[in-house]
């Protein structure tokens, strides 16, 4: 697994959102985009992470940042997650993990003694020109939004 790094152009991608509509990274040109990869909708860690971002939406909006959550969940699972937790940002389905592979976040994981391929919890801040500005890969799910906001405020 070779994760993309800051300074690298973000891969152009289009994925289906929670409404089964196509969403492209190019749709957000001129804005910063936080593309955050999470393993599975409605699981405890992913819920805590999503709710932190939900509760930070006003601050992220003020900093011109759009949030896109990407998982390998099927499209039909995404509206349930949004509805259950009142999420206020876009979720995208990467069922075949093609976009995750482009970003370098699909690879070997270990859990309870088992080794398997899966989605790593890593986030990418993409600048207004489509270049990765920062990679967030060291955080706790409950602190993810705080780590992102701290970086954004320190690097205005």
Write structural notes for this entry.
It is globular, with a radius of gyration of 14 Å. The chain has helices at 44-55, 57-62, 78-85, 98-103, 144-154, and strands spanning 14-17, 22-24, 32-37, 65-71, 90-93, 106-111, 114-119, 123-126, 132-136. 28% of the residues lie in helices and 29% in strands. It starts with 13 loop residues before the first strand and ends with a helix. The strands form two sheets. Strands 2-1-5-4-3-8-9 form a seven-stranded mixed β-sheet. A two-stranded antiparallel sheet has the order 6-7.
Strand content: 25-35%
Low-pLDDT sequence parts: none
Average pLDDT metric: 94
Strand order of the largest sheet: 2-1-5-4-3-8-9
Number of continuous helical runs = 5
* Broad structural category: alpha+beta
Question: What value does the Rg take, in angstroms?
Answer: 14 Å
- The rough form would be described as globular
Q: Largest sheet at a glance?
A: 7 strands, mixed
Termini separation (Å)? 31 Å
Give a count of the beta strands, DSSP E runs of length 2 or more: 9
Instruction: Provide the helix percentage.
Output: 25-40%
Order of helices and strands: EEEHHEHEHEEEEH
